[in-house]
Amino acid sequence: METQSVALMGLGTMGSGMAANLLKAGFPLTVYNRTTSKASPFAKMGARIASTPAEAASGANIIIAMLADDTASREAWLGRNGALSAASESAILIDSGTVSPGWIVELAKHAASRGLEVLDAPVTGSRLQAEQGQLTFLVGGQEEVLAKASPVLRAMSKEIVHIGPVSSGARMKLINNFLCGVQIASLAEAIAWIERSGVDREKALNVLNNGAPGSPLFRTISARMVSRDYTVNFLLELMAKDLKYASADAVRSGVALESALTALGRFEQAMQKGHGREDMSSIVEALRG
Predict the structure, then answer these.
(1) Active site residue 173
(2) Residues 38, 109, 158, 173: which is the catalytic one?
């Protein structure tokens, strides 16, 4: 079976690790990034560098976007020199960014007009998991289409979960990030409370980490908050975006995510204080005073 050729649009925190693992697995890879300097290291690893999304997509069997939001994704797929315009008749389009289900449905309609299939395949995990090829893909779309794309996705992941039809992967990712965002905002408030009250922080976090509130996320984020190491694993401003998308999508199902809106307020407060481009754990700094 001929090795599938892949185009990857977006070489940010997640896309860079994904690109490296695709190259390690031997897939012919073309990369596109709006800031071209981020693409240069991948040329040395064997990737072809494209100057536009259309150039990246041309001739690729699998076209993947790993971009920040609906606006960036729309521009890459449908904008001037967009990837959809150059996609071959047999190409599979995969959007792995955390985008809105509504945008995925729209993209699928545009693709269908050309006889092409779309998978929404956002991921769980952050920078380290992307680098290690240990992501989990949450996939919406037809099972037979996923079967064709699975060899490529496996090169970047530990697990591929088929959630349901197109847009269900995007929705599942928003549900996941809603719960993460609320927990992180609550954790920031708790740490600020502990520090300001004079309770021994090390003892308090030991109790919490080993008690009912403890979780992998709690342990990871609390350690970053204590060390004040805000090296980006997940951008704070992107969590704020995800909470907005989650709230808007839940309303369409008749559910008001009140806790998401409260958490969003905390993330926006941190953004106003200049932490938007830091790791999401830096939310605590806005509460430390």
Answers:
(1) yes
(2) 173
